Sequence to fold (1289 residues):
Amino acid sequence: MKKTIAILLSLIMVLGMVVACAKPATEAPKTEEPKAAEAPKAEEPKKEEAPKATEEPKATEEPLAPWDGAYMDRDDYKAYVKNDLDVVMAAIEDQLEDDTYAAVKAAREDAEKAIDGAATLAEVRAAYEAGFKAIAECIPLADGLYTYKKESNAERTNVLGILENYAVTKGITGITLFENGGYTMYNPRVTLGTENYIVGYGFGVLAEGAITADLEYETNEAWKRYYHICETSDPGTLNYYNDQGSQVGDLFSYQGASFYTNFMNETKDGYDWVPELAKEKPVAVNDEDGDGMATTWRWEIRTGAADGLKYTTGSEMESRQAFNNREVALEDYLTPFKMLLTQANSLYRGSEQANTKSGAIKGAKEYYQGTADGPNDELWANVGLKAYEENGKNYFEVTFVEEQTQFYCMYYISSSLYMPLPQEFVDLVTVKNIFGYNTDKTETPVDNALSLGAYYLERYDQDQQIVYKKNPNYVYADTKYAIEGIHDKIFPAAQEDTSAVLNEFLAGHFDASGIPQEYLNEYRNDPRTRTRTGTSNFKLNVNATNAETWEYLFGEEGVVTQTPKDSYWELKPCMANHHFIQALSYSIDRLSFAVSRGRVPSVDYLASNYMSDPENGLSYAVTEAHKKAIANLIEDTDGYGYSLELARDYFRMALTELEADGAYAPGTKENPTEIKFEIAWMYPTDEEDYHNEIKNFIETAFNDESVCGGVYKLAIEFWVGNTWSDVYYNKLMPGQYDLGFGAISGNSLDPIGFVSVLSSDQKISNSFTLNWGTDTNDPEAYPIVYKNMRWSFDALYNAVNAQGIVAKGQNKAAVAFNYTKMVKNEDGSYTGSMEMVPALPALTKITPTAVVCCNYERYKLGDGQYDEKEVEFTVENKDGGVVVVTFTVPAELAADYATGSGTSEKPSGLTGFDFYYDQDLDGSQSTGLYYSVQEDYFEVPAAQ
Amino acid sequence: MGKYVLKRIGLAFLTTFIILSLTFILVKLLPFQRPIGGDQQQIAYFDKQFHLGYVFRFEQEAPQYGTLLYKSPTEKGRAYYYYQVPVMEQYTNWLKNIVLHWDWGYSKTFQPNVAASVIIMSRIGYSMRLNIISAVLSVPLGILLGIWAALKKNTVTDHTISTLVMICVSIPSFVLISFVLRIFSYGLGWLPSTWPPDTAATSVKVQGYIIPVFCLCFNPICGYCRTVRAELCEVMESDYLLLARTKGLTRRQAIVRHALKNAMVPIFPSILAEFIFIMGGSMILESLYGIPGIGRLFVLSLNYKDYDILFVDMAIFTTINLLAGVVLDLSYGFIDPRIRMGAKK
Fold:
């Protein structure tokens, strides 16, 4: 007993000591930061800290005036500013010719001298601005018509590197957090096609892999060697033609076939494009200039009669059995195109195909628009798709709207959506029910599907399982896809419990599983675990607009969205400071953040699956162009853009500048100035998983007293959406955010096309701009240099993707229009004029062909009929290729249209004009172009 | 009595109608959600919505239909204008189709084109089997456990049962299933970890019922046990039971003939209440165990925003619950003759 009391007393004493020791620490916290990171004294150079750029010797001999920078001493500030110029130099020097390089180098040296000689903060900043401008002015602005679309993959990759470098430096890529790759565990009974993940292809589990043992858990003997995986929800249909998501497309691909497919190469480190339904690669039909590009391509295809290609179905219905082993006919190849493009069928993918710009098929849009009531043979004759026999061989021919290379022809046409189908089968099962259930569920997707792919649908048990069996009729059935089938379990528990799939895998019920965060340490190094790269990079998108830019983009009369005054976003001045954004980026420890979540740490804009050379499977991420583009982002960091020292230095730099600009005033240690900003998250789970750690990274980096003496405090709040689209519609698109979480995936085979979303021009980004603040059509904002010329981002983007009409470095429309409003003449007629100004007068000839007066009063406010009439006009050619069209609307026509031909109840005279013209742009003829003007008014006759 | 029953049934259907109408209108008043993307995606989406009858498409502006949802560019500066079909118009169409054609609509996204009522009918069997088996099993088990505790009142047995019941009644079925799965499926490997598909062997299908039925029974068993114990203890201390004993009945005879009969009066109505409780619990449990029933369908139809299915599912749940309430009320009269339903004073 005494012993027990003694132990208890000892414990109490120890506890007391611990409490006593802990108490003062709570009252007066001391940081454990190394000395180098402590607040520098204003007048003393910080020898401990290692600024990013090499410090240059001072050029001036005169004593400098006292330094007025707040949180960074003069030499450090200058070193960082000079580093900014070095970054510019590094980005452009490869693209400069000797003379220009010499001039730029001289300007750079002058700038350095000026910076060294500057005494005050304002002088340093002015010297930097002047130096930056001088460097830029040494390089001529691009001016003319350019296209680099036909350049080699290597050259286009270089251009992508230049565009990426600009985007990274200007901060319009956002702050990347991680790539959505990670770990996958495979059952040892599964032999993978390769042990090393092939970017853009995978491990080759189905095509090249095998299953070497039975799955004991499976009770159906026939399925024991099937590949067992799961879906978190039942897609309800396998009708890919009418589906918007990716799940149905993925499932459809098991049974679908396309003209071309991918298989792993012999060395198992990449993949090859091989014909599947085709028998050869596409051959150009109209490559007249021999540059390897053509609008029309054809290739030999497999059919039943010639090659034994047959359909397979798993249905036991008598009517469906008639299609089992039915030979594929030549005309079957056109059936899916017709079905998709007939608007009356109301198929989502059809609408998408008809309206696409990339790889658009000639006449497809017109056919779609003309088939609201059903198929139209007359219009179909103009669609650029043909299947025909020639000299005993069967061919498929496609005509695109724009010229394509052989590879992109293969790419655009290789969708399993275009798998042949017999028209009789479509008629039997109906377009509405194809690959799905019928209305009373007496037919399942098994009954309404046909297969030409590696597998065919064996069973579809609603909300339970989808089972595929190896298709003996598949083209490569003998050499590929050795696995006997796929058992896809519908497993909704995975939605509720992140470890549910892993539990099933560990119990031997599934053949593959990801590893949830909480199990990473346990299974990361398990022999069953493989690492894979991702398809998207998740980022914090940045709103770096200032008040003026925000007003222009999102204000009451905004060009992107219109916001009422009382809903204006409260902009944070710090977000518009580039050094502040750099500081935020450097403060995030991506390595620990991503690895702890089983993700791939990344600082890149594009994920690893984006291909520099898609035909040969070369990832852009490994190219020199990319490494150069992000060099400055990772230099002196942990390799993933994290450096506490750099973060703090850039933060001090930003505060120094922001205070000098009057944006913020320092508080006191007891009452610091609070800089609040918000992170908008997509889902509540994002907020739960990520917010606190990101907040902690930022606050730990900047709120430490050693950074700025504790006179500023960053406070990070959050906003969270309910669905994934909330963050886009409510925050990013209308500019109502500071930082917004999200990712976009584009065409991984066309990364240079995907940088479109970085443009501030909504026409280029297709309304997908997520990072705001930089006018990407301003060549003066930052020098983008290519082929010894200076470009805006938009101009070079267009030049490398299509055709760049560039004037003074800016992207321009071929013709600008200045409309002069109509005036009423004494005789009641109206006269107006339109000035047509070419962007490139030396290369452009404009020929007006017609002016059409449109009866909008009737169309929009009357009985809805659309009528229009040509009116007389005269043409005056002026200097600089300017063309002025003067037109006159007769009094009688004006009076009639003013009232909507008498059909408008309260006529307002609404009208419009279409100005038709032909254009010759450097020998390239375009006819039937037009420009429309609306919202002008005729005077409504008094009698009305 | 008959009039009263008819009145109660009529009221149940009226309540169902009101609930469904309110649900329909409130759900349809939710903001219209556009897809993300440029014109290509928007046109595809709105054309689809137009063909499904959720939006109007005009070739001119039509402000009388409220806020413009989307304006798609077409040719020559013209455009299609999309507006949402007014909620009340959708509501009257919906009602008309049900009343005149017994047409409850079609699935739009969950199982496109399949009649909502067909989807419900194909799944209701799974839920009903599960719920009825759970209800049937829980009654005798709960009652027996309650009787045992009452008979052993204030003994170790009683305290143990009561304590366990108090703990177990607090564990929801969806929490319990995680433990049960971990022990019996992933740990010992005795039972299936998910609902076996229809193609599985009969023995496996039978095993598939064990975990969900156990989890659904767990709470009702505890509930019955508590009620029976409390009622029986009270009855056993009553004067008439003492009288029965003094008349010479053995303890067993007194309990079986008098105590149990009277203690059961409040038990039988609670069986229906527990059945309703089981149905509610199965909604989450079906999702966790992958049972393709109507409870899970309710959650799925909400996630998919497939409202026609949601309304039929809602109608089924509401009707079953309200009719169960009617039966519950009526059962009092049958069990206890002193209670007269709808009798005038």
